[in-house]
Amino acid sequence: LFPFMIAESNFRGKIIRLGNSLDQILGKHDYPDYISDILAQLLIIVSMLGDNLKSDYMITIQIQSDGILKLVIADYFGNGKIRGYVKWDKEEYDKVKTKSLEFADLVGKGYMAVTTSNPKTSESYQGIVELKSQSLEDCLQEYFNNSEQTQTIFKVFAEATNTSNKKSSKKNWVGGGIMVQKMPIK
Q: According to the model, what pLDDT value does residue 166 have?
């Protein structure tokens, strides 16, 4: 993770790259690649946001919907650990998996909640936005524009590369992203 400020401007941001962490989390589940990609993107975003937290705090981004993706959760703990999980409707996914799918195709109607909490004190803050955007990045930008009132842009990516040898065929996940925020002028 690399935070930055653009000199003589009111822009700041972060650049991140994740590899082994994504492999460890996604390797424990047998999600289709597109669903793994969404979880990977959410883990990248929660890692960028969590970097600002004090060590006692955690941040959770949760998506709940009536679509194929029923529940997607990514947590960042103050010690830099992340975890993620997806609950999805396999039967519904199998009906559409041959189509070119977008984020909106998988989530349907629902909401995204961003929760910052301190488990030791039960102190928490939660912001919620409706899932009406076409991408995960757009949902987060809407959250920041409305709840945080900070113009924020996210660009994230994740991909699996196949490595095969005589013993196994394994996917290696890698991802990264950039977050840029326009800060208020003082």
A: 52
